Amino acid sequence: MSGNHSAATVKERAELALNDEFLRKAVRFTTERLRNGKKNASEEHGNWDEWRERGRQIRLHTIAHLDYYLNLFADNARANGAYVHFADTAAEAVQISLAIAARKQAKTVVKSKSMVTEELHLNHHLGTIGVEAIETDLGEYIIQLAGETPSHIIIPAIHKNRYQIADLLSAEAGERLEPDTSVLAGFVRKKLREKFLEADIGMTGCNFAIAESGSIVLFENEGNARMVSTVPKTQITLMGMERIIPSFTDLEVMATLLPRSATGQKLTVYMSAISGPRRIEDADGPDEMHIIIIDNGRSLQLGDPEFQELLNCIRCGACLNACPVYRHIGGHAYGGTYSGPIGAVLTPALKQNVAEWDDIANASSLCGACYEACPVKIPLHDMLVYLRRRKVESGHGNKWEGAGMKGFGGVMGSSRLMRGVLAIGRLGQGLVARDGEIRLSIGPLKEWSRYRVTPVLAKESFRQRWGTIERELREGLSELDPAMKKRMEAMKNARAGEGGHGHG
Amino acid sequence: MADQTAQTHEQWLEEMDRKAREKQQSFIANIAGRLGRETAKPPAGHPYKGAPSFWQGFEWPMEERIERFSANFRSAGGHVVRVPDLAAASAFIAEKAKEMSAHYIVRQQEDALEALGLEEALPGCDVSVWNDDPGKPWKALAAQADFGVVLADHAAAYTGSLAVLSDKDKGRSVSLLPTVLMALLPVDRLVTRLGEILMPLDADGREKLPAGVHFISGPSRSADIENDLTIGVHGPGVVYVIVIG
């Protein structure tokens, strides 16, 4: 599931990432590039918050009436000549896809980028019935050759350098390819051209589905999604059930928000609206088109006031680029199909197994940068807190942490106990403190002191000083030091002459 | 499996469709239930449809549209030239074909492109007309072409995008498979906003929609290898827009 990174916890996976110098630099560089692109594009466009609000409202409206809009979409897509299927689970979606592939006696399937098929592990399942699935997005193709999974929703091979890529592609080419971007991309173009032309089935994801016209809309830069939906005789489109928007009119808002938020482009190189298979007299386009609409845990969010807005997500990746945690540990550390802040919330939400994924919710600084970046204003940082709360409520909290918090509450609630504990602490720290700092990393201080220094307790606490401070304040007000009193009066007299506008 | 192969493909599709419609009932009922109602009902209205109102009336004068379209298309790595008429457009394409040693050109079957007279302008070139003979393998022919020549149906200046619509005479492959794309854009087809192209698609209705509506905003590109921009990964790497008028 997480490529070569099979460590059990976020922390272990993050350790792997933090040890990989190239990965860390590449992730930082890429996320900076995309984040700055987004910043410039949204500033140049102007009124960004009003567009965000508009995007949010359209998504809220559609999700609130998802049952109606899905029916409308299915009716119109069928009227266009497409076959529309519904799958409650990943297994059902896989079964439908395999049934079509088997019926078509397909040998190869060419795929354009689709996060949903990653959710389903569809390539693996196709392989079990002897169908070769070929990823055709350049980045996806590279990581498929490496046998890994995407580490960024927009730039999936962010963690590979050109030498690693040259090695992978050379093995495929059967000859040594120079680690030069244009040479490598040129090889992929040629290689995949053959694949497009001979493939039996083209498989796409779906950025948006338009209810009123039954169209699917694809955003891309390379042209491979167009290839996949133009050349093979059969097209299968997999879409999460929440991809719906009502109309082409609404698409203008999404087309304004998505590319700018993802890469800073005004529009992706290609935006295609595909409405059914080819018309009878057309000389290209698929003869047969299947659309598989997938729930796979999404409906669990419906009617849940804390998480329903997750379904508003348009999969732009802006929250990844904005997230200080993602920028340090990269996508594989999250361990699921979706990474970054959206992945930290979406993965447990889709799987409804808070316990197993709990550590992801903790891999967040709750700084809210994800919310600020989100083009449809999903309150991801709040959702991370809800997740943590649910984890504790469902009894999956850390027992020691719970006991510690309870003890802390008891001590803090009693001035007598607090005083006693501080007194013991001041005595105890004498053994470990040097120059006002504690660098010891054992026991409860271990994790903290690995990266930071613990300051010592003050010789005299605020509480101990409070009596003196309060007395000084009270007495000071009634009985000023004569010299100070004189100075203040002089200042007051001087101000009176200036009309009170002086600000020093 | 044995009885499945005995089915005709149509029977199999019908069977799949029947199952899908059955499944749809429970699938939608689950969503409706989660949303707190028994059955799906149409919403009372869609109060936030489309772009914000301040955006709706926004329009640039024609000269500014041409200027902005060109600037945007160029910054995406494309080329834009402006010519007075079809004859000049034909001369430009012929000149580029010679310069790049193009041997094989495929063009859409449209009157304006017919009027270019590319066959006469380029006697050494093989010029095919999309789908003039339904028996030919058109996708493979387009894939071999050096130049694809299309007439843009619309263009939006604000994003620097062309829009091409498919039909029997206008292949989706022609703007996708050749190495170089030459797109003619009559100046009166250039609008300011994307919405001016999208909203009429709603107004015209589903029945009028072609199978493919494609917006094109430059040459095919990727930054998947070390963030290094690569042009022409799958689609045309060289794209010329010839603005006419």
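qc> The first strand of chain A starts at residue 83 and ends at 87.
qc> done
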